[in-house]
Amino acid sequence: MQSIISTAYKNGCNALNTTGLVACYSFDFGSTFDNGPNHLNGTLVGNVTTVSGHLNQALLFNSNASYFYTGGLVALGTSNQSFSFSFWMKPISVTGGTIVHISVGPNGYSNGTTIWCVAFIGFHSSGKLIAQVYNSATVAVIGPTINLNVWTHVVETYSTTNGVTLYINGTLFGSTGATSYTASGVTDYIHLAYYGTQGSPCAAGNINPGQFMGAIDEFRVYNRELTSLDVSALANQ
């Protein structure tokens, strides 16, 4: 029993910054179990494999239409609700790809009644990382070009006061300044690495939507805007 407790702590989900934590996926051993308080367990689709991660193991997405998704995200569907995403990624291509896609259904597009879907984090065709939010149109921070085959820590935060803020490896890169967030108004789904089976017509802004090629590790969702100290702690995990 002692060994099991130790492993749960070392996966990173229980060790740091649990205030406002909605969901946390260590992806250790290929698991899609949510180690956060709400147990929003995810699903893998397509050819997804387990590889060495930044911490323990990670998921590798290296073929078209391979992705992770989970639902039950109430706060993300609420307009002007603060939120944050934190994760490690190791891309093998940066010429495009959707990393974090938010929608109202498991298909990445609709729930049968409502249509709402936006790419929140992904790559521009130039290789620059984009972090954005939706306010009748996308409002974005255009980030740096990300190195291939290297683990990079990424955090996107949002609040009405600061808008979208992008951190790379624990360091503030840029912010949009104050902006509103026009959410879906219903419970949302998150897709990682792709936009789902029907998400191709969704709002993408500066992101070149499609398959993200690379590995993702330690993905977290918060219902608050992380501070710079929070981000630094996660980046140094």
Structure description:
It is a single chain. With 237 residues, this protein is mainly beta. The chain has one domain (19-235): Jelly Rolls, CATH 2.60.120.200. Helices cover 7% and strands 41% of the residues. It has helices spanning 2-10, 228-235, and strands at 21-25, 43-45, 48-52, 57-61, 67-73, 83-91, 97-103, 117-123, 128-134, 138-145, 152-159, 163-168, 171-175, 188-192, 214-222. The strands form two sheets. Strands 1, 3, 4, 6, 11, 12, 13 and 15 form an eight-stranded antiparallel β-sheet that branches. It has a seven-stranded antiparallel β-sheet with strand order 2-5-14-7-8-9-10, with no helix packed on it. The longest helix has 9 residues, at 2-10.
Could you give the topology of this structure?
Blueprint (H helix, E strand, L loop, with lengths): L1 H9 L10 E5 L17 E3 L2 E5 L4 E5 L5 E7 L9 E9 L5 E7 L13 E7 L4 E7 L3 E8 L6 E8 L3 E6 L2 E5 L12 E5 L21 E9 L5 H8 L2
Antiparallel strand pairs: 1-15, 2-5, 3-4, 4-15, 5-14, 6-11, 6-15, 7-8, 7-14, 8-9, 9-10, 11-12, 12-13
Organism: Adineta steineri
Keywords: Disulfide bond, Signal
InterPro entries: ConA-like_dom_sf, LamG-like
